[in-house]
Amino acid sequence: MSVNRAADEAAIQAVLSASYKAWDAGDADGMVADYTEDATAIVTGSLRGSRAVIRDSMAAAFAGPLKNTSTYNKQLSIRFLGEDAAIVVSESGILFGGATEVPDAGKVNATWVFEKRHGRWLIAAYHNSPVLEPVS
Question: What is the domain range of residue 80?
Fold first, then answer.
């Protein structure tokens, strides 16, 4: 029996959209608003082990090397694991200096792990790595 997950997909898309908009605004608090307190993020091989640590590292980045940047994001897949977990795979990149396209060398494949807590979809983990091979 097939289960329609359209509402869950829409809720997850809304979480991602809000996170991307917060990045564009340089808003670290907004960017992690939909992360679990115990969320983890692995970015450029560095582990950030809680929402607070992710927030602090993004605030520092938005004040420095990521100031006035935006992101490119293309969802490649979404897969539900039971009722309360989902994995989203995306291709992403950072747009520097008003750029409208991310060079291939700047693109990453990202994995987002979502958990539904108290009826709300939240980001529980994030990891990215450089795109080395074409997507299949």
Answer: 6-130
Query: What is the rounded CA–CA span in Å between residue 90 and residue 88?
Result: 6
Two structure tokens written together for 98 = 């008003």
Q: Is the pLDDT of residue 68 over 70?
A: yes
Q: Could you tell me which residues come within 8 angstroms of residue 8 by beta carbon, excluding any fewer than 6 positions away?
A: 80, 86, 116, 121
Q: Burial, 63: exposed, middle or buried (Cβ in 10 Å; 0-12, 13-18, 19+)?
A: exposed
Q: Per the domain annotation, does 102 fall within a domain?
A: yes
Instruction: Please give the mean pLDDT across all residues of the chain.
Output: 94
Tally the domains of the chain.
1
Q: What is the CATH number of the domain that holds 115?
A: 3.10.450.50
The tally of CA atoms less than 13 A away on the side-chain side of residue 65 is: 4
Cα–Cα distance between 34 and 21 in angstroms, integer?
13
Is it the case that residue 132 has pLDDT exceeding 90? no
Position 47 in a domain: yes
